[in-house]
Give the backbone structure.
Amino acid sequence: MDYVPNGLHLNHVDDIARLIRPAGFNTVRLQWSNEMVALNPLVATEFVAANPQFYGRQAAPEHSRDA
């Protein structure tokens, strides 16, 4: 399981946003799972290849099991 919204390996998140807004959408729903939050794994670079700013990041960076 990759824990990453599909498409981030192909297109930069800014480019995706530029396609969504002109289509008239004002919100985007990104699915997540309880397992992703509980495990909070490091994201493999191949799943975010077009978005190097996410390399080495955790799937749920705002979540901390220690808090």
